[in-house]
Write a structure and sequence with these properties.
single chain, mainly alpha, 9 helices
């Protein structure tokens, strides 16, 4: 016992009813704040979002893009970050996931809340050079996606 270190584990209830697959963001936030954990989460990249998941949640907001080019999931994440003006210090791009600080995740949620046509216009405006073939190759745009979008 003298050589051991004491650790504390705090359980956080995802919802008041203990119902499966239901997450009450306000309840969880209140619990984390009362434990003093919420401040620590602001410093970390607490939100881990697979690129395809982000694309699915923003499907109508990102496509069709400028010149009808379909974006790969990672490039779509870059477009969403640019539109939301997320500072580089608030995110990291991994091979398969986007790592976000909570305030960056909130900015992406604001993009989701916009009407799809407004969001598409913002994305297109933030990527003005996206229609050039060289940009398509440099950004990893799949030729099949570009052809399908043009058809």
């Amino acid at each position: 016992l003298r050589r051991s270190t004491v650790h504390h584990v705090h359980c956080v209830a995802p919802n008041a009813d203990a119902a499966p697959r239901r997450f009450d963001e306000e309840l969880v936030g209140d619990q984390l704040r009362s434990l003093g954990t919420a401040a620590a989460l602001q410093l970390a990249f607490a939100v881990r979002l697979p690129y395809p998941t982000l694309c699915a949640s923003l499907r109508g907001h990102l496509a069709p893009t400028a010149a009808g080019i379909a974006l790969l999931p990672r490039r779509a994440a870059e477009a969403a970050l640019a539109v939301c003006k997320v500072p580089p210090a608030d995110y990291r791009m991994g091979a398969t996931k986007l790592f976000l600080k909570p305030r960056a995740a909130r900015r992406l949620q604001q993009l989701q809340a916009l009407d799809a046509p407004v969001a598409r216009a913002l994305v297109a405006a933030s990527l003005p050079s996206f229609s050039a073939a060289a940009d398509r190759a440099a950004c990893g745009i799949r030729a099949s996606h570009a052809a399908a979008a043009a058809a």
